[in-house]
Amino acid sequence: MKAVAVEPGLTPIKEYLQRQGCQVVDMSSHMEPSVGAVVITGLDKNVMGMQSAIQQVPVISADGLSPEAVYDRVKDYLR
């Protein structure tokens, strides 16, 4: 399964995804190409100026979502 990149500040979501068996990496400007989805806070859709860098990867806004709901969306993208 591809890894999921998670924006800093989403620790509860990161921990929940890890407990569900997801490989989680910190979001950075040098993410691995094997990242299958990116989870952001939703506060800034162009986090760290990365919009062009992650065009081919689904971006999931965690704004207003529980860790369980984020996991459900991650599963949909990583099938």
Q: Report how far apart the termini are.
A: 8 Å
Rg from Cα: 11 Å
Shape: globular
Q: Average pLDDT value?
A: 82
**What is the N-to-C order of secondary-structure elements (H for helix, E for strand)?**
EHEEEH
How large a portion of the residues is in β-strands, by DSSP E?
15-25%
* Uncertain parts: 48-53
- What assembly state would you assign to the polypeptide chains in this entry? single chain
Largest sheet: 4 strands, parallel
Number of helices: 2
Q: How many strands?
A: 4
Strand line-up of the largest beta sheet: 2-1-3-4
Helix content: 25-40%
By secondary-structure content and strand pairing, the structural class works out as alpha/beta
Explain what the structure shows.
It comes from Alicyclobacillus sendaiensis PA2. This is YkuS family protein. Pfam families: UPF0180. α1 links the parallel β1 (3-6) and β2 (24-26). Strands 2-1-3-4 form a four-stranded parallel β-sheet, covered by helices on one side. The longest helix has 12 residues, at 67-78. It is globular and about 25 Å long. The N and C termini lie close together (8 Å). Residues 48-53 have low confidence and may be disordered. Helix content is 27%, strand content 20%. It contains two helices and four strands; from the N terminus they run βαβββα. The protein has 79 residues and is α/β, with parallel strands linked by helices. The chain has helices spanning 11-19, 67-78, and strands at residues 3-6, 24-26, 35-40, 59-61. α1 (11-19) crosses α2.
